[in-house]
Structure formats: C-alpha cells, structure tokens
Amino acid sequence: MIKAKKSLGQNFLIDENILDKIVSLIQIEKKNILEIGPGTGNLTSNILKKNPKIVIVIEKDKKLAEKLKQNFRNKITVINKDILEIDETSLISGKLIVFGNLPYNISTEILSKWIINLKDNFWFDHLVLMFQKEVANRIISKFNSSSYGRISILANWKLEIIKICDIKPEAFYPKPKVDSSLLLFTPKNKIFKLKDPKNLEKVTRVFFNHRRKMLKKPYNQLFNGNQNILDKLKIDLNLRPQNLDFETYYKLVREYEYLRS
Fold first, then answer.
1. Which of the two residues, 10 and 226, has the higher pLDDT score?
2. Is the pLDDT of residue 66 over 60?
3. What is the pLDDT of residue 8?
4. What is the DSSP track for 169-234?
5. Residue 133 lies in a domain
6. Are residues 240 and 159 in the same domain?
C-alpha cells in the first residue's frame, strides 16, 4: 500500500460504503467532474462507475499523480499541481461538480480561496467536500455559538450548505486522529451584493481578531466610531463578534465599501 505523506495531510478514504454514498449524493452521469486530492484513486474509481462526461483530478503528490495516470490512462485527466495555484475557471468551458477529501491542513484556505474568487457566474454546480469535523462545524455554524466565525460568514455568503454525515477515522488509511464530516455546497439563487469579496475577508478578519472582546475596538478600527451606521444597522457595541448574524456582517461590508467609494 502507498505510504501517505503527513506533510501533505494525506489520509486515503477506503470505506466502500462511504465512497458509494459520496458519489450517489447527486446526479453525475454525463457531468464534468473535478476531484481534489484523489490520492490512490479510490473515489475516482467510484466516480467513473457513474459514467461522467469528463473527470479531471488535481494531485500535488508527483508519485501519486504518475500512479493515477498509469491506473486510469485516458479515462481521466491528471493535473500534478497544488490546488491553491490552480485557476479552476480555466479548466473547462462548462460547469464542474467538485469532489474533494481536502487536506486538513489547508482545507479552509482552499474553500476561502474559492469563495473570495467567485464571480457572478459560478464555475461549479456543487461542491462535495470532506473536512475535519471541527472545521465542518465552524463552516455550518450559526451566530451566537462559540464555533461561529469568519469561515461561517464567508461560506454562507454565496452557498447553501448541508451536512451529510460524520465519518469515523476507521474509514481512512492511515487513520486520522479526528472524525471527519462530509458537506454539500450548492450556489444560492439570491446573494447579498458586494463590490469586492476581499472586503468581506478584511472586515471579518478585523472583527474576529478580537472575538472574545466587545465590538467597540474592531468597529472603531474600521469605521472610526461612525454612529450613523450603528443606528442604521441597530448594532450594540457591547456585543461580541459571534453575536452578529450573517446579514449584519454583509451589511457592514457594504457600508465599509460605501465609505471608501
């Protein structure tokens, strides 16, 4: 069996029941598929059984990429690169369905990159992604909870998110020390309009750098104590960052953009 590289956060999914569940979540027949981190190709094999139109896989590990080319030949296109360096919009002209057992050490970085770079026209129809359970809980978290934070606000801006299931370490080789969770992401029909997604990243970063403190300090840093915005959005500066809901943050970003336009 191929030895997993800890430096790349490799844990290969080997449970056939879970693999089958993943590829049965949505209709992928005659669809364009992108798989992130296919590893030994276990999920890839299950995807191919569903008769997709095109399968592209991105594998950073050179040895694994070569092995995938040997095993699957012309059935898939193998890209031996780091996913963080890929422009997904340039891969094909149509939309993709994305599957990924994401490396735990960069999973939120990958998701944040996709969200920040999203244009009005989505390059994907669905994302079916595996995360460390703790990270997945942060992604789906709602306000007023301790796990609510920047990635919750970013992810829920343009995406509907459903938790499919938790997955035990025994489903992987080698076994990770934590449970995992499978999430399904689908583009929202109605999206709160912002000029630049990077402003959402900036505003939430400033607020959640002080997540245990009251809102006053980060608010003053961004808005110089502007009372009009506080009155308009009905914000109490004695609250903490986790006490503001998604929409309030999106409205704060819009006000931030307006002040700088």
1. 226
2. yes
3. 43
4. GGGEESPPSS-EEEEEEEE-SS----S-HHHHHHHHHHHHTTTTS-THHHHHHHHTT-HHHHHHHT
5. yes
6. no
